[in-house]
Amino acid sequence: MQGTRRSHTRTYLRLRYHFLVLPLLVLAGGFLLTYASWLVFDRAHQAEVRRAFSVQVDQTLGQFQARFLQYQSRLEAIRALFAASDTVDRFEFVEFVDTLNFQKQSPGIVAVGYIALNADKTKANIEYIYPETERNLAIIGVDAFSDPSRETALHESAKASVAVLSNPTRLLQYENNGTQDDTGYLLFMPIDAEFALSSTIKPSTLMGWIYIAFRLDETLAATFDGQGFELALNVFDATDTSARQLVFTSDIASEARPSGFKSLVTTRTVSLLGRTWELDIASTPKFHDQFRNSSGGWVIFIGLLLSAFLAVLTWLVADRTRALRQIRRINHQLQVSEQRWKFALEGAGDGVWDHDIVAGKNHVSARWKTLLGFEPEETTESIEAWASRIHPDDYPVVMKTMTDYIKGERTDYVVEHRMRCKDGSWKWVLERGMIVERDAVGNPVRMVGTTADISRMKASEALIWQQANFDALTGLPNRRMFFDRLETEIARVKRYGGVFTLLFIDLDEFKEINDGFGHQAGDDVLKGVGRRLRVAVRTTDVVARLAGDEFTIILSQVNHSQDLETIVNKILDSLQQPINVGDHVFTVSASIGAAVCPYDGVSADDLLNKADRAMYWAKAKGKNRWQSYSMPVA
Fold first, then answer.
1. Other C-beta atoms within 10 Å of 45: how many?
2. 471 in active site
3. Domains of the chain and CATH, by start
4. What pLDDT score does 318 carry?
5. Which one of 147, 549, 600, 612 is the catalytic residue?
């Protein structure tokens, strides 16, 4: 009995021992597994935070560069105005600059001006300025060479024929204030007197500079201080390597941080417009708050349940796997949403699109819909629907640009094209985009970009081209376009053979109309003459007004004297028809000289001089006549 009792006791203790050891082993293993899982999850979370930080750093650098390049593009637009005009007066300068919306779209700008270089190259006086405030007008006539730093930047800009930033300097408008807040930068761009868009400007043809004066701290504050920017940013001017100068600190960088907080820190260096900048960027508590790892507690809780309840181990592992997958999916969706709307901030108010290349879907922002006339709540379109809105003439270029970028054959996706609005009208837009996600083998999965409305810029370019090439009174091509077409015809004859005839037309006694009835009556007569000349010749012929009452016509493929005589007589008869101007009726005649290319010359000046000489021969014989300089026998 006693032996049996002792045997049962030993068996009971052994079973109890094993019963206690196994839960302890499972519990210990569960603790180890839970801790290992938490470490893996935490490391993945930290890697995700670092990736998001890197994306925001790249976006910050892009926004910094874009602000300066925006100023440079505005100066290029103003330089195009000088290139398209013989002269630009103060009113034209101020009116054109006003259309560029500097102060609305570019905070921090103090002035936009034009500096004229005097004849002996010793002074560069400020001649035009915008806006015409009291402070700005007070510096009209100031010599920009009076300050060595400005003079150095001006000469560097002219020598390199590019836009150049000055050293940080006290702006002239506030020189008497004597405060640090009055320090700013000047961005200079040279202008060529012969052709303002030339890539290389000779010292002899330098006529001056256009410039932008701005406060860099205000410019960067408008970009980086506000909702949505969650990084601490310090910008240094590091052009002088011995002493870099702090030029901007974001608001969030000045906020107090909790004790023990560790930031992600990086420094990016960029060379831009002749200067070197260093951007010290650090993460902030606000940035890390959006990545708060609230799921770590769930990992521990699930691990403890796995350890405590061996019977439901399989179910808990499956549930844990499902929970982890759900957490990864939620985190991925949050990351996609964050990238999309962070890029929207970089777009500075432009429309944002997000191409899901694999699914063929196109997510767009409310601003993108508004640009095309849609309501914000209207359905998101597919990529095919987006492509169908591209103008047929622009479609091949847009598709090739995007395809080349996706294939890696070009470094960026930037394209201008027209898109069809909801009401059927067309709008010019500028699209920029980048690939933000690739699959495991490197194929693009997502592409995000912005769409900007550039209709007003295109309209301004068209207006500038119209004013540069057409006569404002008659609507005919002006001297500049006439010589361009004349050179084209001469080149065609030299290359392919053939002939064409140049007519030089001078109205007879037009001065009497101007003197007797006023310049308005004279202008109306010139308009009537222009209309009749267009009707009297073929659509392939070029009718132009050179100046005053002088007109020219390029007759293509006319070389026989009989054909030329028929056409010229038709022109003379057309001009003699009465012209009604108010209560007056005028009858005008003209003297016409003709020169044939290549028989009378193969240069524009030679042909024009000979046609002009023939016109004077005709005028010497009396009114309403024409004369050919020479005409070979057919």
1. 17
2. no
3. 109-214 (3.30.450.350), 349-457 (3.30.450.20), 470-628 (3.30.70.270)
4. 56
5. 549
